[in-house]
Amino acid sequence: MYNPDDTSDMDWEDRQEYNKVQLTKIKLGDLKKTIVELMGPPDISEAKQVNGTQLQVMFYRTTWNQSDGITTQDECTPLLFENDKLIAWGEGTYQNYLKL
């Protein structure tokens, strides 16, 4: 059965628009589990541990740059989690993650 909110059933254009809408529903402190339930799995993800703190950045496609069939970080909005809680998203978030 088709589920209109199942992101795995969406083409990239629909998923991109869906992600933009879903991003308006998130707030700082949301749990990673809640975000994944809301938005589906990320397009790209990275994680590391720094001084006992787990950090993860998840990228969700929100813009189109070129028709190459590959979703890249510059076509996504990054969401940064610290110990599974959302602490930042949007422009500059990935650069902050790299510095931590």
From TrEMBL:
InterPro entries given in the database record: BamE-like (IPR037873), DUF3192 (IPR021534)
UniProt cross-references to Pfam families, sorted A to Z: DUF3192
Keywords annotated in UniProt: Signal
Gene3D superfamilies with a match to the protein in the record: 3.30.1450.10
Protein name per UniProt: DUF3192 domain-containing protein
Species whose genome carries this gene: Aliiglaciecola lipolytica E3
Lineage, top ranks: Bacteria, Pseudomonadati, Pseudomonadota, Gammaproteobacteria, Alteromonadales
